[in-house]
Amino acid sequence: MSIKSILAAAALSLLASTAWAEDTIKIGNIVVTAGFLKSAGEPTLTAVDIAVDEINASGGINGKQVEVIRFDTGSDPKQASVGTRKLAQDDGVLAIVGPFSSGESAVAFNDAERLKVLMMPTSASAPGLTEGRKYGWRLTEDEHKQFGRLLKSLKANGIKSDTAEIVYISEEVVSNAAGTKLYPALLKEAGITHGDPIPVQYKSFDMSAQAAQIMASNPDLVAIAALPDSASKVIGELRRQGYEGRIIGSQIFSDPNVVELFGPEGNGTMLMAGFWKGFSPEAQAFNDKFVAETAKRGIKKAGAHHSDAQAYDTFFLLKQVMEKVGTTGDPAKLEEEREAIVAGMEGVTFSGILGDDICFDGHDAELPGYVIEIKDGEWTKFDSAPADKCE
Length: 391
Prior knowledge:
By secondary structure, the protein is α/β, with parallel strands linked by helices. Helix content is 44%, strand content 17%. It is built from 13 helices and 14 strands. The protein has helices at residues 3-22, 38-41, 44-57, 77-90, 102-115, 143-156, 173-189, 208-217, 228-240, 258-262, 281-296, 306-325, 334-345; strands spanning 24-31, 65-72, 95-97, 118-120, 163-169, 193-194, 198-200, 221-225, 246-248, 270-273, 360-361, 364-365, 369-375, 378-385. The strands form four sheets. Strands 5, 6, 7, 8 and 9 form a five-stranded parallel β-sheet that branches. It has a four-stranded parallel β-sheet with strand order 2-1-3-4, sandwiched between helices. Strands 10-13-14 form a three-stranded antiparallel β-sheet, covered by helices on one side. Helix 4 (77-90) runs parallel beside helix 5 (102-115) and helix 6 (143-156) crosses helix 7 (173-189).
């Protein structure tokens, strides 16, 4: 092949590549597949892939295929900031789904505001994260509301809950905030007496001293603010020392995998979740597809976590909004279309696998909540609370 032919072929290849880039709807996806958030965050990639495959199979968005561009934070909030800048400035995405956690989102939201691009985290649940933001929105429910629903359910169903102790992981942003501020305030509001929150370090393997401290007061409830692995260590030691009361938690460790992780010691544990597979046929279908697909990827999942369902629904919400405002994906209209998407979020209602007619109070979705009880080795629905109405 002559030099002239090679150059001509290269030019055609470049034109084809450019045409493809301009003929897609580019959405950024900040993910986590390493670090302490790996076990909770990595499966969310599967949920996003399922959503994108379904959207593209049905014709995409406004006739164009969705192109997902990813950035992995490795559980580092600073990297969430780097990822936001890369996706918005270098890759020219129209919106960003992610980051995963509240700690990452608290940092990345600042960049999204400066760069004027819609950002929707997949699991961030710390109260107040979107306050004062224009470009930060959440299709999640905050810890305050969900844990409050759990405490109301305990009282309403006659479960003894006069006294409690609190255990939290000091290095985890959400765990620390929940254990030192959220849980104490809500327990007090519910009329439940509690001691000083007890800190545990994430890397600690010996929980015996903390468990012994709890056993000394023998409360009706032990409220744990921790990710699954840490919660499992606390629960195991409490049961080993003979604690027989209820162990409770908010959304932080509400992963169906904890049934196996906690083992028999987890029986009777109650927690909150923002997704229930039995909500609708569509929710059940997603759950089944998610479990099968994660297994193909070498990830064992007993069911979808609510963060997985939130990530899935977020893409369908973006599809709805982008179709409403006529998003084209034309790079020449990037800033204009980003602003139109954000404007399209105002007053939006959405139905998906999380719930029907979901609305937003401010920039936070109002979602139903499900009280989950680990019962006889099964992830069971104990009670539920409807979504609050939007003002």
